[in-house]
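ugh finaly. both done.
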Amino acid sequence: MIRLRWRRDRQHARLAGVCAGIARELGVSRSAVRLVALFTLILLPPLALALYLAGWLLMTPQAEIRRWLD
């Protein structure tokens, strides 16, 4: 059984990192996921906003690794 770890990707985020996190988990480009999100926003605005808000609230941010020398 494959377990997906849905996490927001802050490093490649435009707003909250939801689309970048989904793209990373599915193995597709961030641009493709953002285009699908944009088309959904144009065609079904309430649904798109509800799904994005749910993703923002339910997906935890990806842990950042910091280095001492950066």
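ok and the 2nd:
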Amino acid sequence: MNSLLPQRLSVFTIAVANYSLFIIHYSQSNHMWKNKWVDALWYVVVFMLIQLSCSGMASLVWSDMISNPTALCVSLAASSLITVAVFCFAKWWRESKSAVIAGKGAWKVWLWTAVIALSTIIPSLWLNDILGIEANEDMTRMMMSIIQSPLGIIVIVLLVPLAEEVVFRGAMLHRLLDVSAEDTTKKTSPILPIAFTALCFGIIHGNMEQAFHATLLGVLLGWIYYKYSSILPGVIFHITNNGTSWIMTTVFPEKEDATLLELFNNNSPLMYTALALSVAVFLCCMIKSPAAQTAKD
């Protein structure tokens, strides 16, 4: 570490502290801008500021941050935890008491969410191949280094999904739907809010492959949030999706850039059978979804 590190670290810390105080000062009311669309965009700005700040702090400590898995994991973990803390403290995200996924039927919602998440993986990969969307090499290398780190599973599978669901569904979509924390019957049309949050969710992923996949999943996650008025099913969906990717990359690292057909050893009948079964499971889950359970149930 060079001799200027303490000074640079101090300056950066002061800058982060200043904007954090700004956020806290103006977050004492639920809807600081009095306009739900501006509020929604503000949540994305805060989310990005936190990520950039943590990345900047990590880069001051680790000069090789982009290629250093420990630095990447620490940065992502810190930004995820700070995001959840800020959004909770600012009361931008609050789970509705009447919409807590709990009680006797809770396991049905959790199982349904995990199954529907698994059913989207093969169709998503197939769409990527059909549309010719190629993975960004730098992003792929960075993700591989994170996944191969001992902290990777905690960051990618647990912390990042929680933070993203808090921001994009728990705060952003909640605000756009005007869902009262006490009265979940006051719901506006979900189409535009879900589409808008899904698009923002896709854009923040920063590369075409992930953006396309994340936008499609954002629509589905938005609908799940609209149905249950809780981020818990979305978190389970997100964990299942990221966890499957982590397992596949860990077990078969040599197939990170493989097409769907190559994953099935160039066996087209087998691939299309798996694709058809995935679509069938997905449609069944969409048609027959478990009812929302409340705290009273």
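summary for the 2nd one i guess: The CA atoms of residues 70 and 149 lie 7 Å apart.
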